[in-house]
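Re-run with default settings, no changes from the original entry. Doing this only to confirm the output is reproducible before filing.
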Amino acid sequence: MKHAYINDQINAFKSAVDVSNKIVGFTGAGISTESGIPDYRSKGGIWYKFQPVYFEEFVSDKKKRLLYWQRKQELWSDLSTASPNTGHMFFKELYDDGKLEGLITQNIDGLHEKSGLAKESIINLHGTNLEVACIDCGFTVPAEDVFDSLDLEEGVPICQKCKGLMKPATISFGQQLRVEDLDRANELAGSCDLMIVIGSTLVVQPASSFPSIAKENGALLAIITLSETPLDSCADFVFHLKVEDFIRLLNHSTTHR
């Protein structure tokens, strides 16, 4: 993109934000890599170190269950120290301005919550690593209460209420997404006037269908991500930029909110 073109597009995007009152955010892994959280599916990432553990394997196979917890323990070292970046704070500011209706995220890192965005406005499609829950009775505890004292040589965590298996409150391979989350995301996508996608390649289904739903129902669609996406051709705004670069341009453009 040439500078003049980018500036024109940034100004047009800011004008769209100004006149929108029902904005919905949609985020993927790309918004969090700049907070030091790797894209775990990339080559060399954690998914290359450990084979995926399906939910049924977690329940029925002691060795697979241990493998799952080993991966989560390694993941926690990144999550526990990560802080929200300018991309997360962008959505928090929209919420504070009364413009953000809700935020749909594919991420499990909890950085939107850490940004101060109201929990009830966030739809964690793939769950969250901020909590650990019993798969039998649903008893839930903060993740740090588990990981800060976790010693897998003594075994995996067991529920203190019913002695069931504890598991980070994320959606595992082989688990269905929560129907209530999908319904709520569908409702938000269908009623927004602007959807802002940051850091998603829009290829993982069914999550990536929501920007299409927004567009089909008359909303403007903005996509900010480094790579091309299947929806670039129909989006109203496309910025193939790092999140921090996009926010910097947004803050220094010639049009001010």
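The chain has ten helices and nine strands. Residues 62-79 form the longest helix (18 residues).
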